[in-house]
Write a structure and sequence with these properties.
- The chain is mostly helical.
- Helix content is 52%, strand content 6%.
- The protein is built from 5 helices and 2 strands.
- The protein has helices spanning 3-17, 27-36, 40-45, 59-66, 83-99; strands at 49-51, 72-74.
- Strands 1-2 form a two-stranded parallel sheet.
- Helix 4 links the parallel strand 1 (49-51) and strand 2.
- Helix 4 packs across helix 5 (83-99).
- It is elongated and about 40 Å long.
- The relative contact order is 0.13.
């Protein structure tokens, strides 16, 4: 789903939650959008950037990334030992997002 479509969907979801009228949609369009639409928690999660403790991501962090509850991870010097370890770490984090069908993780 494109970024513009996600933003439009988020606006429609928030507007609907506030009782505001939304645009009229055909039944076919509604089925197509709702089957792949992110949840409110995922829309909010995509705006969250969290810090990672240690040299490798915890299973809990990888799970949050995979579920779309986190949009980015901040890495600090304590998270990095070598250039190769950094490449492996970012690959692991991005693979978790890809495994969940999420947008590319912001690192």
């Amino acid at each position: 789903m494109s970024r513009i479509a996600r933003l439009a969907l988020a606006g429609a979801l928030v507007g609907g939650a506030l009782g505001m009228p939304g645009p009229t949609r055909s039944p076919v369009m509604a089925v197509a959008v709702t089957s792949t639409a992110p949840t409110i928690a995922q829309l909010i999660g995509q705006k969250l950037v969290v810090r990672m403790d240690g040299l490798s991501p915890s299973p809990a962090l990888l799970g949050r990334i995979q579920r779309g509850e986190v949009g980015g991870v901040i890495l600090f010097g304590a998270n990095i030992t070598t250039a190769g370890a950094l490449r492996q770490l970012t690959a692991t984090l991005r693979a978790a997002a890809a495994a969940g069908g999420r947008p590319r993780l912001f690192i």
